[in-house]
Amino acid sequence: MAPYAFAVVGFGFLSIFAHIILRGIQRKRDFLWYRQALSYRRLPLSRKRVLETYPFYEQLPLKNKKQFEHRVAAFIADKDFRNRYQGTVTDHQVVLISCVACQLSFGRRNYLYPMLNTVLLFPEAFMSPTNQVLHKGEFNPLAKVLAISWYDFKEGMDITNDNLHLGIHEFTHVMHFESDRSNDIDAVRFKKYTNKILRELMKPDVRSKLDQTQFFRDYAFTNQYEFMAVLSEYFFESNADFKSTFPLIYGHLTKALLFKEEWIMK
Fold this sequence. Notes:
Elements: H1 3-29, H2 45-51, H3 55-58, H4 62-78, E1 80-83, H5 91-104, E2 118-122, E3 126-127, E4 134-135, E5 137-140, E6 145-149, H6 150-158, H7 166-181, H8 185-201, H9 204-213, H10 224-237, H11 239-245, H12 247-257
Helix pairs in contact: 2-5, 4-5, 5-7, 7-8, 7-10, 8-12, 10-11, 11-12
């Protein structure tokens, strides 16, 4: 074998070894050595105009705006957006839903929610076929479908001080289900810190403080999935109060999402 062939083989083994080492360090120390490829997708003008009205995008530094636009464009290309009643799904709806999904996953490398294929829009709350109860949103992990009431989704975006954000809530469900079924680095980290949060809830002093402050709404305590979804709503709509009231839980959620302080809406 020629010397250059040995070099190629050696380089290949070295790359694999380095990848394994880096992956281990990333999992142990909860960081990503890169989040974003250097190439960037662009949105067409009609969709870019909608993106430019999205508050999270507006306050990002320029370098992060390019990343966010790329991710929104990639999310749109990856998902099937449908109207339940055969109507048209507008650019406005497609872009805003994609913006919310990408805001929640902005700290992750793998931001496309692989367990989700289809976003199904209803004009308002709908009857769930699984339990015959009126729902504003529902994720079906087997069908890989997220059903959303557009009215309630938009209301959750427009009212920013009530800790009710349907989009953030439902996409957290998708992220949480993925963490139960994937060994991807972002999924593993989310599960790790979800478990830390759940263990924190078992401490008597934390339970007592939760009861005394009534900080989180009662629905959060339905089950672990609803608790994490509600935490995410408070993270984005009452960030400072959440951080000061339950700093350890807040810190765990920040690590679960790898969300940077500079991205927090002021």
